[in-house]
Amino acid sequence: MVRLLIMLIMVAVITISCQKSDLQKESRSPGEIAFRSNCQTCHILPKTDMKTDAEWPAMVNRYGEKAKLSVAQVNDIIAYLIANN
Ligand code: HEC
Q1: Distance from chain centroid for Cα 41
Q2: How far is CA 22 from CA 18, 25, 46, 76, 77, in A?
């Protein structure tokens, strides 16, 4: 009986954590997705609060050019960083 209970709790925990990670994936904006996939090829992913609203655009333009990103991707990334710093 105790084993059955433990198994049930484990199944419930796994189900809940899977649902959570699905939600997180869905809530990622295009800017966050582009940031995560393009800004850690040369170094670790920078922290969003590493730069101010005024500093991020120049940074993303500079490294976006190196990473050969489109203007739309650069703008999405800037919007994401400014909203989250
Ligand atoms: C082509 C390789 C490359 C890519 C791609 C790249 N970076 Fe960098 N990044 C560097 C290098 C090299 C440095 C060290 C400083 C320098 O030499 O420019 C750096 C440093 C930084 C710094 C610290 C600079 C400072 O003056 O404090 C930030 C912030 C940064 N990168 C953000 C980004 C962001 C945002 C992206 C995605 C758009 C990105 N990087 C993509 C190469 C890259």
Answers
A1: 14
A2: 6, 5, 24, 22, 22
Residue range 12-37, pLDDT digits in tens: 766 666 666 555 556 899 999 999 99
Which residue carries 């295009």 as its tokens? 30
Element (H, E) at 31: helix 30-38
Ligand 1 close to Cβ of residue 31 (< 6 A) = no
In the chain, where the domains are located? 2-84
Ligand 1 centre and the CA of 63: distance in Å?
5
Asked whether residue 69 carries a pLDDT value surpassing 80, the answer given is yes
Report the 10 Å Cβ neighbour count for 81: 25
Q: Whose CA is nearest to atom 14 of ligand 1?
A: 43
**In terms of pLDDT, which residue wins out, 27 or 2?**
27
Q: What is the pTM of this model?
A: 0.79
